[in-house]
Amino acid sequence: MSTNNATTHGFIYHGVNDPWIPVSEAEQLWREQCALGVAATKNIVGGEHLTAYVSSYGATMDWVDQRLRGVPVDGTSAATPGGR
Q: What is the pLDDT tens value at each position of the chain, 84 positions in all?
């Protein structure tokens, strides 16, 4: 995906100990999207595949809620507090 940018703001979350998808792939996707000018937020949390979903749920829902209420993304790529 290094040349395909998302057409909307992105939220990428991942578990640092995911046994199926290396965390490096989530980090790479985030870097690529940021380099293409996409406002992307990443949230890398402890845990594996399922616990990452649970651990990221609050940050994910906050991000979605802000988008649904029309709160603009600041136009930059950033890591969420508590994430890496």
A: 566 777 788 899 999 999 999 999 999 999 998 898 888 899 999 999 899 999 999 999 999 999 999 998 876 676 665 555
Contact 81, 56 (CB under 8 A): no
Bridge partner list, 43: 13
- pTM assigned to the model: 0.78
Number of neighbours of residue 51 by Cβ within 10 angstroms: 14
Residues forming a β-bridge with 45: 15
